[in-house]
Amino acid sequence: MNDGLLQIEDLRLHYRTTQGVVQAVDGVTFALGPRQALAVLGESGCGKSSLARAILRLLPRNVETYDGCVRVHGLDVMPFDEERFRREVRWSKIAIVMQAAMNALNPVLRVVDQVLEPLLVHQGLQREAALARVRAVFQMVGVPLDFMGRYAFELSGGMRQRVVLAMALVLQPPLVLLDEPTSALDVLTQANIMNVLKRIKRETGTSFMLITHDIATSSELADRVAVMYAGQLVELSDAAHFFHEPLHPYAQKLMASVPRLREAKKLAYIPGRPPSLIDLPQGCRFAPRCLQRFARCEQDPPMMHAKDGRQVRCWLYE
Amino acid sequence: MTALRAGLRQLRHYPSALIGMTVVLLLLLLSLLTVLTIPYSEAIRLWRGGEGVWDENPALARPTWFQLFSTRKLPQTIIVDTRQGGKTIADQPDGTRLVNASLRFEFHYDALPSEVGLWLSATYKEAQPFVMLYWRKPDGQEIAFEERTPRQTDRYFVSRDERLRERLQARSLEEALFGAGTRGDGALLRGTYELAVEGILFEPDADLEARLVVYGKIHGLAGTDAQRRDLGVALLWGTPIALTFGLLAAVGTTIFSLTISAVGTWCGGRLDAIIQRITEVNAMLPGLTLLVMIGMFYSRSLWVMLLALILLSMFSLGIKTYRAIFLSLKEAPYIEAARAYGAGSWRIVFRYMIPRVIPMLIPAFVTAIPGFVFLEASLSILGLGDPDIPTWGKLLFDAYTNEALFKGYYYWVLEPAALLMLTGMSFAMSGFALDRMFNPRLRTA
Questions:
Q1: Could you tell me which CATH number the domain at B2-47+229-442 has?
Q2: Other residues' Cβ atoms within 10 Å of the Cβ of residue B417
Q3: Which of A89, A106, A171, A172 is best to mutate for the B interface (most B CBs within 10 A)?
Q4: Distance of CA B65 to the CA centre of its chain
Q5: DSSP label at B182?
Q6: pTM of the model
Q7: Interface with B, mutate which of A56, A57, A86 (most B CBs under 10 A)
Q8: Residue of chain A whose Cα is closest to the Cα of B339
């Protein structure tokens, strides 16, 4: 496990609000190896984006608790001060494609300068040398080279997304976090971007952590799947088994709500609402909505090891 | 480049901007020409005046174009010199020599000249020459001036010779010299006047030259002040100084307050709080009064004033406005993205935050320039102008202390005032048009 690319242990990120403490990420543990794509699935507001922020330490001001352990190539980066973290981890080891990536471009910079920025900041390259790298990465993500001199507002949504992706890849980081990279795009563009991601994964061996609520798209890229519910991981599994047969009742319900191409079935839904992250239910957090709950669910379940090396947080698999 | 050209093309739709920018450009050109043709040291020498610099200028003469508003033909300055010829030297049997010179000039104006002055310069070793002077009017009348024994240079202001005036019993010597009758109470005489200079030289190598200056009542394009200085020098040199002062103050103020506000907003916390408190305290301080105090007790140098002004205005309330913009900008996704890829604080502040507000800033910046120009003029009018440098405000101050308006020397006040207003208007017109160009919401169509 020590040669793993990224290891997260008991990571917690709580926010302070006027209503109380929001437990956005509450004790998440997982590991990600090189050349792997992990899909993090979950409903809106379950803490997926906060997980990405916690990994990259992009914290807002109202942080209540931020602890746990983040290891990159076996090295614990939590004790790093802000400056060292910025220089040694951000973008060079872990890059991120933000949610609403279209707004992540500086409106007063040409996209070429925007993509150059990480190179100038981290590698101190001369502009000419850096430009060659930018051209290569633009070709890789499929942005025509004559778009390089344009401003972000002169590009379509799909192109902007590709530019943002180019920016994430320009330093050749071993891991890229994708926070809903396709959520604001139309279906065709989504498919294009997913194909680009698949090709990059194949060609460069970059690991991805794909955060999404779109199970169908995630299945194209993912090697492993983590399902998140109310700030916790409830299932961690390899993709082949998960998409075939999810274990956790929540994951089962989630999969049942996805339409299939050649199957005329009535789509299922999950009753109730996701719990507030401020006022969490006692015991299993999914229990109030779970159809299979029993007495044991009064207590908080730990992560259990199930068959095929899968992990699930449910008393059913004790 | 293309963006610039597109901007210029857009400018055509704003006539006020075109006019304003043309005037700004002309003012800049004028400054450049002034600085190139009259170097700074030369300008200061001219403005300080002193012996020999402005001697031949009339005092308090109106500008030449004043003639356009007058039905009377006003006299220009007339200078006649023996070095131009008309001098004879004859040896005497007793070893002395006799100099005879006739300084003739035509006078065909409708008004009396303002003054008459005579410069005698003698070359001698020990014995000063002896000179007799006779003034001959066109009607043949002759007035004898006092005999003189001139030194190397001898300046004789005929108009101020009280004894001569009393001898002639005239109201003023100009009337006596240029009017009919000995007392000069007759009509103004037009025609050929002559000043005959008869001198006796006592040494073989001695020589004598004379120069007569009949001061006019109009002079140059700008007129002169009470010290015979050509106002043109101050008007011309006032232009680059006003523009430089306005521009430097505006640039300094905006750059510093923008940077302070951006850094404060980005870092937040205690630094931000300190900056805000300084701004609030500074807003309560009367800026002009502080500048007056600095001028009274410390230094009146233009550059000290400029520095003090920038220091006072960089913590102006503009910081609050910028802060409001930066606070919303700070949370923008692309700033967060910049943080994610590891951009340092300085990079974010200078490459991401500040460039965003520059378009909003340019119009305000352009409109701020005349404000500083006026402030400099106000300080000068209060008598706190730089003692060395001629400025528009200084002209107004001089005009005020010489009671120019009371005595009717309107040009002295109107010329610098007109230039000040022109500068203010041109920048304001450009600024307002730029505002509409950069803020599309202000456009009507």
A1: 1.10.3720.10
A2: 15
A3: A106
A4: 18
A5: T
A6: 0.75
A7: A86
A8: A58
